[in-house]
Amino acid sequence: MALAPAVLQAVEEIGYESPSPIQAQSIPPLLEGRDLLGMAQTGTGKTAAFALPLLSRLDLKRAEPQVLVLTPTRELALQVAEAMQTYARHLKGFHVLPVYGGQGMDTQLRQLRRGAHVIVGTPGRVQDHLRRRTLSLAGLSALVLDEADEMLRMGFIDDVEAILSHTPPTRQVALFSATMPEAIRRVARTHLRDPIEIRIQSKTTTVATINQRYWLVSGAHKLDALTRMLEVEEADALIIFVRTKTATVELAEKLEARGYACAALNGDMNQAQREKAVERLKNGSLDIVVATDVAARGLDVARISHVINYDIPNDTEAYVHRIGRTGRAGRKGEAILFVSPRERRMLRAIEIATGQSISRMHLPTQEDVADRRVAQFKERVGEVLEAQELAPFEALIESFVSERGIDPTEIAAALAYLVQRERPLFPPAPPPIEELRAPMAKPTSAAVDEAGTGKRRGKGEQPPMVRYRIEVGREHGVQPKNIVGAIANEAGVESRYIGQIKLYADYSTVDLPEGMPKDIFRHLQKVWVCGRPLQISQFEGDEGPAESRGSASQRKTAKPAAPRRAAPSTGKRREASGKRSKPGAGNSAKRPEKRRPKKQ
Predict the structure, then answer these.
(1) Pairing of strands 36-39, 262-265
(2) What pTM was computed for the model?
(3) Which of 41-50, 427-436, 461-470, 539-548 shows the highest mean pLDDT?
(4) How far is CA 88 from CA 342, 388, 565, in A?
(5) Please, what sign has the CA dihedral across residues 316, 319, 324, 327?
(6) Residue among 123, 144, 137 at smallest CA distance from 37
(7) What is the mean pLDDT of residues 241-266?
(8) When comparing pLDDT for 358 and 364, which is higher?
(9) Alpha-carbon span 18 to 230, nearest angstrom
(10) Any idea what the Cα angle at residue 401 is, between residues 396 and 406, rounded to 5°?
(11) What is the DSSP code (8-state) at residue 178?
(12) How crowded is the C-beta side of 414, counted as CA atoms within 13 Å?
């Protein structure tokens, strides 16, 4: 496809064999410098669709930003930056820099001074750098708007247009969006020049006989988690999918060292080696194959009961191809997916594309492992009792009993101990493996419309919500979209799960789902909006007139009246963590406070 040789080398090493539909249609025009308007869901391979051609056109001698990728969330920014680094691994001197809120500004400033060819960032933080004049887009040759509709929904579209105004008129623009609301089309009409339009319809489906589960994984514990799963899963044969050829060999060797009959299957193997591995899998002399997508394509072995996605696939189509190795011809199959916190977007994309919910699983406990080993031991003993001639051994035990006067049960226990020494039936407590949890409970309804105005769509039971106070209000220039964007981006909470927002003169209130983890609460306290930290705390008190995001007419007519607060005489407010902040923090000293009457 006329990509740069260094980029093609990386593509080959990763294991890509043929382009996905979005890649096949996007790469040629982007290589030619054309603007592009692409309509495609997450998980269709968009990142490679724009990254490969734009990396191929970089001038590495120019140590200045040449490509800017705007994403709605920091998780996606990090994901795109990592993908860019992977594709550019053979481009000497290449630098990519992710910039997003919540990361120290000093770190980003140092890296910007050092020079970067590609900037991947969230609109708010990129705008911040432009205002500070710490980022120059004068030399920009290409701009990518990734998941533009999500940026619109989170209230970033004004920031996006402001950023576009700082770019040279000759720059190339690629806009990708799952949907095309009018606001996105207006941006396209204003800022794209004669764009190529691409629409990709996802046709992904999965087999109903496959039970799909996922585990939220901490990267350092993946191997220990995998081996614990292998201990308790009722599996016949398994395929474990990883991203690279090198990883197939490394993981297969580690599993072999832990006692599993395992082999690698990758594109570096010749046909004879591959056929030998598949034959061993079929005849039962091999139980586990660690494979890449390309190497396992077309593999059909009836014994395969489990597919484990040790590395999450790059797109939804790859996921479907992977798990299709099990559950064939009406048989039942199991699919397990390892998902890191930054990969939750891909998990949601897979669920949307397949139309099936993937249930969360928890790691087996030490007791589960012990129970499984004991059950296997009993099964093996039962098989020996049924199939083997044991008369000489029975005579041996009777002789031992008569000589020593020991209960036969004690002898059996001693023999069981000898048999299980290398693989204890009651293993010692393993090192703890951190199980990650989702950032917040998801309500059944509380969705906002695509423009982020806060109008409800859909009805249903309202889940428990908690009202929080944040120390930024109308006099600081804040708008509801700023609050929605900051919380959605920094806390990983989708904007449709953010409830009612009310603006007051010097503070605001926002309703969030019950159950905010302490680490996210602490992080949100430090997040800045409109030049002020949120300093979020649990709200207590009565509310006076306020500007709510729920009604446009209310926003026009609301008066800046002082709210009534229910603070004690010290002016302290209770935080969600249970601690008290300093007296008077975030309050106006001039405004008198009204207290609740004491209960009789």
Answers:
(1) unpaired
(2) 0.53
(3) 41-50
(4) 21, 61, 55
(5) negative
(6) 144
(7) 90
(8) 358
(9) 32
(10) 140
(11) S
(12) 8
Q: Which two tokens stand for residue 410?
A: 């004690």
CA–CA separation, 488 and 16 (whole Å)? 33
Q: What is the DSSP string of 276-318?
A: HHHHHHHHTS--EEEE-HHHHTT---TTEEEEEESS--SSHHH
DSSP 463: P
CA distance 368 to 231: 9
> 356-360: long-range contacts (C-beta < 8 A, 24 or more apart)?
356/206, 356/212, 358/212, 358/213, 358/214, 359/212, 359/213, 359/214, 360/213, 360/214, 360/215, 360/216
Question: What integer pLDDT is reported at residue 121 of this predicted model?
Answer: 93
At 6 the three-state DSSP class reads helix
- Pick the closest to residue 307 from 295, 283, 294, 291 (CA basis): 291
Q: Which amino acid is at 104?
A: G
202 pLDDT band, cuts 50/70/90, is: low
Asked if 116 and 96 touch (Cβ cutoff 8 Å), the reply is yes
Q: What is the mean pLDDT of residues 217-224?
A: 72
Q: Which of 33, 355, 326, 26 is nearest to 194 (CA)?
A: 33
Residues in the chain: 600
Q: Backbone dihedral region of 207: left (phi > 0), alpha (psi from -120 to 50 degrees) or beta?
A: beta
Question: At residue 19, what is the residue type?
Answer: P
State the average pLDDT for the chain: 79
Q: Distance between CA 501 and CA 411 in Å, rounded?
A: 72
**pLDDT for res 552:** 33
Judged by DSSP in three states, 464 sits in coil
Characterize 53-64 residue by residue with b for buried, 16 or more Cβ atoms within 10 angstroms of its Cβ, and e for exposed.
bbbbbbeeeeee
221 contact partners, CB below 8 Å, separation of at least 6: 433, 434
State the DSSP string of 187-201: HHHHH-SS-EEEE--
Residue 261 near residue 290 (C-beta atoms within 8 A):
no
pLDDT tier, 308 (very low <50, low <70, confident <90, very high otherwise): very high
Cα three-residue angle 41-162-50, rounded to 5 degrees? 35
The residue ranking higher by pLDDT, 446 or 532, is: 532
- Are the C-beta atoms of residues 65 and 118 closer than 8 Å to each other? yes
Distance of alpha carbon 509 from the chain centroid: 28
Angle 46-56/5-14 helices, nearest 10 degrees?
150
pLDDT in tens, 109-167: 888 888 899 999 999 889 989 988 999 999 999 999 998 988 888 888 888 999 999 99
With tokens 């002789």, the residue in question is: 399
Q: Set out the domains of the chain in order of their start, with CATH numbers.
A: 5-199 (3.40.50.300), 210-363 (3.40.50.300), 367-419 (no CATH), 440-600 (no CATH)
